[in-house]
Structure formats: structure tokens, C-alpha cells
Specification:
The protein has about 525 residues and is α+β, with helices and mostly antiparallel strands. The chain has three domains: about 300 residues, Elastase, domain 1 (Roll); about 90 residues, Roll (Nuclear Transport Factor 2, Chain: A), CATH 3.10.450.40; about 100 residues, TATA-Binding Protein (2-Layer Sandwich). It is about 30% helix and about 25% strand. A hairpin with a 4-residue loop joins strand 22 and strand 23. Helix 4 packs across helix 5.
């Protein structure tokens, strides 16, 4: 078995906006991000070394394997491995026969935030990979006594987060998602502390989706950051093209509602206000003139169809989740975002952006943030956040499939050929294309829109090929490449995955789909070597 053990860098969760630069600096990030997981480690184990004993159940195999390698985790040998982990999800790929498990490490039955893993068993009952982060037994022992400490209630934690947000932004409007608080052990300066993870998700006084970790012992804010980054029938789309799409006749009025895909696709207008979802768009003759609405609706249909036809995925959650989009959000709003429940598109100011729903790769990008939230749940901070952004770019760009630029249809309309990002040449728009040049500061949630260029470049090399930094990659084509990256995203990556884990995940995904000795695996290995990720 090949073993790779690396220090896990700053990690934290998921789901952002299109913006190329952010204003996360307006929030005080309590605790240095680089300290959040300093006591844990990425453990990547790959190789054919453990096969299921005869007659063992599928879950029994998981526990038997983990027990056989628990010395790699620096866990106490005498303890039952089941006291350290729990299985949270299981899914079998009908094409390859591989079963993918998601697990979470626990302390006294309470999950450790970011210490989750993916474990993979092929159709022959052989464990092929374990990828994830684990904190060692010595670190766990630090906080065993704190479990008995007097805890705040989940309601107290929610109130503490709301009080903190209101102190910064002013009185908060109604929550867009009913607040909840989940109890975790959260690493602070390398030590696990009992904390509630909760969220302030409002549109007033401005669009906010702030992730909070609230101390369960005294209600203090251990860490926080704003996930929403601010950077900035037939009908006619934003660029003047004519489109056809599904609508629904209700009485004598047509609604911008498609009932033929999953549990439906609905498109609303906020009428330049900030209430969501707004008003369902309607027409008396099924000829639609709201250009932003036409594109948001049509492109949501196309993204849904792409996921279903290419990956067999039924909507964002894989179970037909209703897709809701709102256009004309706020006034001259230069952003688009997924807020955990729906897509939202501004009209732009006419100079930096035109209506953001007018670009298919933008719509695909935002919807993919939703897919990530329901699968790998990559933290929207640091390296996991950069991967989160990158996979949205990769899949959104592949859905559009007309080049390697992101946002070129709606960004800076008065500058020909301009775009937000380039997968082929990230440096054109201020992104690094090599790990050695990565951004290491705290702005933009630790560089989520900046460092995404590293993984984007790797994907480009896998798909298109070329020689970069002295390494030659033979491209395998976009279709095979995006299939590999999608499988890695939904089955192999986890909350705190960094670039090294991404390399391992994409290699294992290619191995599952095409075989260990395939040209596809070779391309992936060479591509990540070329961008300095080992």
C-alpha cells in the first residue's frame, strides 16, 4: 500500500458566488485559519491490500479494514474502532460496482468538524482507497472532560450568532433558511473544543450567509466567515438570442415553471428588490421578453439535463430537488450566488457585468455549488474552498463546452474577449497556475477564487494535454476528464480536502472508471505533477 501523510492545512465548508474577488476581510476571522486543523492530518491510503473475509457484511468490511490500519491514525490499539468513527453515507456506482462510503470521526459520539473520510470498496470486495482527515488519539484525550461541561443549548448558539451578525451589519431581516445548530468538536489552536455550527442566512440589511462556530461552553464566536462573496415557450435571452423552453399554463396565464424535470424548475423575479424568491414570472401568450428570466430558466434546464445525461444525477441532490432561480435581484447587483436553497442573479451595473444569468457556465457554476453542498461538502475556505470553486468552474465550463473561459459572455461587456477566469491560462486573470505560487493570505476566504486556478489548470491539462513546467501530458478529452472529476467530487472528496487530497481523489476516480494502468490515470498523475501538486 502506498501511504501519503501530510499536514492538513486550513480547511473550512462550501458554497459560494461567482465573484472573482471577495470582501471576506470585512469579517473578523476569530482564530487563524491555518490553526483550525493543525492537529489533524490528511491520510491518503491507496492500494490493494485488504480484501473482505468470506461472509462478512459490507459494513463489517469497513470496520474490519479500519481496525486493521488504526495504527496509521495513531489511535489507541485496545479501543473498538467503532468508538472513533461512524458511517454517514453509502452509495454504489452501478457502472463500476465500486461502493463509496462517507465516514466521520467522533469523540464521545460527537463528530469532529472536518475530520471526515471517504472509503472505497471495489466490486470484488477489495478496499481501494481511504482519503480524509483524522485527528490522533492524543488530541482527542485533551477534550474528553469538556463533554461533561455545561453546554449552551442549540437555541442559545443561534441567538449568539444572530447577535454577533446584527452588531456588525445592523438589525437582521427574516431568515431565508430556518436556523439550526449542530454540535461538533471544532479544532481551535490544535485542540478540539465543543462548538455549535450554525448560520445566519438573511437578505436584509444585505445578502448574508455567515457560517458561525459558537463555543458550546460560553457562547463566544470561535470562527466565522461569510460564504456569500461579494465582488463584485420562446423568448429572447440576455445576448439577444431566441430560446425555447418548458413552461406551464395555469388558467389563462403561462408560468415560467417546468414540471418535466425532477420536482420542477421555477424562475422568479425579485423586481430589483431583495425578497426571495420574489414573484413567479408569467406571460399571457407564452412569448417571453424578460431576457434575464429566459436565460436563467433555459440554462437551469440545460444544466439539469447535462447532469442527468452525463452522470445519471437527478437534480442538485440526486433526488429531483426543485430548482429555483431568481433574477433582477437588488439594483445593479454585480454577483450571482447559490444561497443554500436557490440560485440568485443580479442584473449587473452594465459596466462590470450585464445580467449574470446570461452565461451558461455561470448558471452551471452556481448549480454545481449546490451539488457540492449535497456531496463532498467542501468547506468554503482555504484550499477546500478553492477546490469548491474549481469544481464549479470545471463542470460549468464543460456544460457550456465552447472554450476555456468563465463568465466571458457577461463580464465587462465593453472589453472584447475579457472573462473572469481561464482554465487554460489562469494567470491571464491573476490566478496561479502552479502550487508554488498559491495565495496564502486571508482575503477572499483564504483565496478561494484565486487558488482555484491551480486545479483548473490541472483539469485543462488532463482534458486538452500539453507541456507545462517541463511535464508533458497527453490529453484524454473533455468528456472523459469531466467524468473523472465529477466522480471525484461526489464520491472521494470530503469537507477538509486539500490539493494533495484532490490529486489522490482524482487519481482514484480515474482508476475506478478506467483502470490503474490506463492512459486516463497517467494523464491525471502528470497533470497534477505539472501544477506542482504531489
Amino acid at each position: 500500500m502506498q501511504k501519503k501523510l501530510a499536514t492538513l492545512l486550513a480547511g473550512i465548508l462550501a458554497f459560494g458566488s461567482l465573484a472573482s474577488v471577495g470582501t471576506a476581510a470585512e469579517l473578523e476571522n476569530n482564530g487563524a485559519p491555518s490553526d483550525l486543523f493543525s492537529a489533524s492530518s490528511i491520510l491518503t491510503l491507496t492500494g490493494d491490500t485488504f480484501t473482505a473475509p468470506a461472509g462478512i457484511s459490507s459494513e463489517g468490511l469497513v470496520w474490519a479494514y479500519l481496525d486493521s490500519i488504526k495504527d496509521k491514525f495513531n489511535l489507541t490499539a485496545k479501543d473498538d474502532i467503532r468508538s472513533y468513527f461512524r458511517i454517514t453515507a453509502q452509495e454504489t456506482n452501478s457502472e463500476t460496482g465500486t461502493t463509496h462510503y462517507r465516514l466521520s470521526q467522533t469523540i464521545s459520539g460527537i463528530p469532529v468538524y472536518g475530520a471526515d473520510q471517504t472509503l472505497h470498496v471495489d466490486k470484488n470486495g477489495t478496499v481501494t482507497a481511504l482519503i480524509g482527515s483524522v485527528i490522533p488519539d492524543a488530541v482527542q484525550k485533551i477534550s474528553l472532560n469538556s463533554a461533561a461541561a455545561a453546554l449552551l443549548s442549540d437555541k442559545d448558539a443561534i441567538l449568539a450568532a444572530e447577535k454577533d451578525a446584527a452588531a456588525v451589519y445592523g438589525p437582521l431581516g427574516e431568515a431565508e433558511v430556518t436556523p439550526k445548530a449542530d454540535l461538533f468538536y471544532f479544532l481551535v489552536d490544535g485542540q478540539p473544543k465543543l462548538a455549535y455550527k450554525t448560520e445566519v442566512n438573511v437578505l436584509e440589511p444585505e445578502a448574508l450567509r455567515i457560517r458561525y462556530f459558537i463555543s458550546a461552553e460560553d457562547g463566544s464566536v470561535l470562527f466565522k466567515y461569510n460564504i456569500l462573496q461579494h465582488a463584485t415557450g420562446t423568448g429572447t435571452g440576455v445576448l439577444g438570442d431566441t430560446k425555447t423552453f418548458q413552461t406551464t399554463l395555469s388558467g389563462s396565464t403561462y408560468q415560467l415553471y417546468d414540471s418535466t424535470r425532477g420536482k420542477g424548475i421555477y424562475t422568479y423575479t425579485a423586481k430589483n428588490k431583495t425578497s426571495l424568491p420574489g414573484t413567479l414570472l408569467t406571460s399571457t401568450n407564452n412569448v417571453w421578453t424578460d431576457r434575464a428570466g429566459v436565460d436563467a430558466h433555459t440554462y437551469a434546464e440545460r444544466v439539469y439535463d447535462y447532469y442527468l445525461s452525463q452522470f445519471g444525477r437527478n437534480s442538485i441532490d440526486g433526488k429531483g430537488l426543485l430548482i429555483r432561480s431568481t433574477v433582477h435581484y437588488s439594483s445593479s447587483y454585480n454577483n450571482a450566488f447559490w444561497n443554500g436553497t436557490q440560485m440568485v442573479y443580479g442584473d449587473g451595473d452594465g459596466s462590470t457585468f450585464i445580467p449574470l444569468s446570461g452565461d451558461l457556465d455561470v448558471v452551471g457554476h452556481e448549480i454545481t455549488h449546490g451539488v457540492t453542498e449535497y456531496t463532498s461538502n467542501l468547506e468554503y475556505y482555504g484550499q477546500p474552498g478553492a477546490l469548491n470553486e474549481s469544481f464549479s468552474d470545471i463542470i460549468g465550463n464543460s456544460i457550456e463546452n465552447d472554450g476555456w473561459l468563465i463568465g466571458d459572455d457577461i463580464y465587462t461587456p465593453n472589453i472584447a474577449g475579457d472573462a473572469l477566469r481561464s482554465l487554460a491560462n489562469p494567470t491571464l486573470y491573476g490566478q496561479p497556475d502552479h502550487y508554488s505560487n498559491r495565495y496564502t493570505g486571508s482575503s477572499d476566504n483564504g483565496g478561494v477564487h484565486t487558488n482555484s486556478g491551480i486545479n483548473n489548470k490541472a483539469f485543462y491539462l488532463v482534458a486538452q494535454g500539453g507541456t507545462f513546467k517541463g511535464v508533458t501530458v497527453t490529453g484524454i478529452g473533455r468528456a472523459a476528464a469531466v467524468k473523472i472529476y465529477y466522480n471525484a467530487l461526489v464520491n472521494y472528496l470530503s469537507t477538509s480536502s486539500n490539493f494533495s487530497a484532490a490529486r489522490a481523489a482524482v487519481i482514484q476516480s480515474a482508476t475506478e472508471l478506467y483502470g490503474a494502468s490506463s492512459a486516463q490515470v497517467t494523464a491525471v498523475k502528470n497533470a497534477y505533477t505539472a501544477v506542482g501538486v504531489n
